[in-house]
Write a structure and sequence with these properties.
The chain is of the alpha+beta class. It has one helix and four strands, in the order βββαβ. A four-stranded mixed beta sheet has the order 3-2-1-4, with helices on one face. A hairpin with a 5-residue loop joins β1 and β2. The protein is globular. InterPro entries: DUF1508 (IPR010879), YegP-like_sf (IPR036913). It holds the Pfam family DUF1508.
Amino acid sequence: MTFSVKKRTDGQWYFTVVASNYQTLAHSEGYTSKQSAVNAADVIRREAGGGTIVEG
C-alpha cells in the first residue's frame, strides 16, 4: 500500500491510499499543513500494518 501526500489547488494537503494493483482505495479530508496530512497518513499506515508514505 502506498500513501501519497499531495497539495490541492485550494492550498490544502491530502493523501490517497493506493493498493499494490494501483487502485485508489481512499482519499483523506483536507489538512492545512503538509505535516498534518503526513501524520494522519502515518497513523493509518501503522494501523493497517504497513505501507509507504510518498510525499509530493
